[in-house]
Sequence to fold (336 residues):
Amino acid sequence: MKKKTTIYDVARESGVSLATVSRVINGSSVVKAKTKEKVLAVIKELDFKPNEVARGLATSKTTTIAIVFPQSLFAHVKDMIGGIGDTGRHLDYNINMYTTDDIGDDDTVSDVTERIIKSRVDGVILFNNEHIDQMIEGIDRYHLPIVVIGKQISNETMGSIYIDVKNAAKELIMPYIEKGKTDILYVSPKQNLIKNDDVIEGIQEAYHENGLVFDENNIISSTSSYEFNLATFEKYFKNKKHDVIFCGYDKDGVAVIQSAIENGIDIPGEMDVVGMLNTSYAVMCRPQLSSLNVPIYDMGALAVRLLTKFLQGEAIESKEIAVRYMFIERESSHQN
Fold:
């Protein structure tokens, strides 16, 4: 099926900005005749049908912020969304929510981007996931201020709220290695609020500083489906066991605990299990799950505050804000 022509395509082929294309479409008199003629020719050549996207490029402010994240992340970031909503209301900003899943299929990124521009939001908050770079590129084309949660990144109109997960993973794994527990498995989630590569690098550094090498075969991937993961882990633990299982999400940690117990593995007597983010999943399972606590609500609130500083032209001391983390040990581990 032929890909729909967008205003971005017109701007690229014309060699002008999106704002210029918008002005031509809306009949503005400030565009030079030669430029207008060139843009109109490209519009005709590409058979572009002007719509709300062009109108959404108007300069008027709507005091509306968009947040975009994969739907499969919702269970892990609902408290963060609460922080975004509460802070947005406090600062008199409306919040539009957009969810995506299976990004990469049927040009989902472009579709979501178009819906965002149509709604004429002032800025966008993006949640880190495996396709975050594609999301950033899609939004940044329209020169909207962006704050990314979960990935350290910044430029003139972009900032980030992130966790130093490389150091966090290193600090979490180091005590185990020093106690001789070197068979450590990392369960890597498909859609992750944090950067999996940084987690793995932190684990590798902990091994390296102890004169060891982390076996990358000790990395397995999970999915967004708890039921699928549970079945996979139940099969996995029929003939395998590790000193420590470190999971990128608490939900995966719960699945690991339940499937290990089904296979007669004592938690934490024979195997420690640790999660990340310290969500409600951690205290709902038995034994309760140890987890790396991250201030999820605060990250949402900080993201809104940083974005509004971009929007209001306020001074910004740092465009990259790292939040604190803390390991909370419960019944599923005995690190100390």
In short: The CA atoms of residues 65 and 209 lie 44 Å apart. The two ends are 59 Å apart (CA to CA). The chain has a mean pLDDT of 87. The chain has three domains: 7-55, 64-163+296-325, 165-293.
